[in-house]
């Protein structure tokens, strides 16, 4: 039976108190919904002895506001966002992504900030301590060897957060607060290609808000998720598209893909597709471009070659659904 280690739970009453608690207790972990943190603590993946619980900040950080775009508090629950009428009208890709995360019980507990900061996952780390010790551990925790990439010096555990591709495609940003003040970081600069710590968040920094620009509202959007089962499972692939059209012609295009490596990515080198007819040929070409740039690994339990072969098919379906 896996049990929690001894923990001291700190309960700040404000954002200022929360970041001060993180500063005062190096290695502390943030507890919001706990849907990912608690199982990982039971797996022995973290050495922390302090949790900074954010339940007392719900009034401060649980909101959906239309102010120069959309502003979403980090403690909005996934279920709240999936059912929000404003999101369904303005950013349907994000509402779709939230509606496909885990199952109903977990969506009611999990938060937007927690999903964006979700720890990377790998078949060699998300196991019991006994299982990992029998294997000799790995680069992400207690070991020096990557079992995914032979001789690898950087962890390639997969980013599995479903909100990230949708928000990347919509050119969103995040507001971060620390004892030194606050900063707003575009989401395209928030993630790092390192499975050990795949965000720019500092140890004493807290993600408090997501900002979506008003330019996203007029775009044709869609989100798609590939997983073994239709509920609960983490993604084998997740992708989101945001398109602008003028008449029947593509005016702008943004395609984000996740669950491949340590960070979700925006597909590059597609500017020349602007000006083409928004049709099936365009969707197929975008799928081919995405396939060339995406190389799934054996970091999750779904065959990487199958995922790579399926990617252009999913992109084509995604784009046609957005255009419809």
Describe the structure.
The protein has 13 helices and twelve strands. The chain has 324 residues and is of the alpha+beta class. Helix 12 (280-293) runs antiparallel to helix 13 (304-323). The radius of gyration is 20 Å and the shape is globular. The relative contact order is 0.12.
Please give a quick description of this structure:
The chain is α+β, with helices and mostly antiparallel strands and 324 residues long. The chain has helices spanning 15-24, 37-42, 58-61, 78-82, 85-90, 92-99, 104-109, 112-116, 129-135, 163-169, 187-190, 280-293, 304-323, and strands at residues 8-10, 29-31, 50-53, 64-66, 70-73, 173-178, 181-186, 206-212, 220-226, 237-246, 249-258, 265-266. Helix 12 packs antiparallel against helix 13.
Tag the structure with descriptive keywords:
single chain, 324 residues, alpha+beta, 5-stranded antiparallel β-sheet, 4-stranded antiparallel β-sheet, 13 helices, 12 strands, 20% strand
Order of helices and strands: EHEHEHEEHHHHHHHEEHEEEEEHH
Low-confidence segments: none
Number of strands: 12
Spatial gap, N to C terminus: 50 Å
Topology:
Layout: E1 8-10, H1 15-24, E2 29-31, H2 37-42, E3 50-53, H3 58-61, E4 64-66, E5 70-73, H4 78-82, H5 85-90, H6 92-99, H7 104-109, H8 112-116, H9 129-135, H10 163-169, E6 173-178, E7 181-186, H11 187-190, E8 206-212, E9 220-226, E10 237-246, E11 249-258, E12 265-266, H12 280-293, H13 304-323
Parallel strand pairs: 1-3, 2-3
Antiparallel strand pairs: 4-5, 5-8, 6-7, 6-8, 9-10, 10-11, 11-12
Helix pairs in contact: 12-13
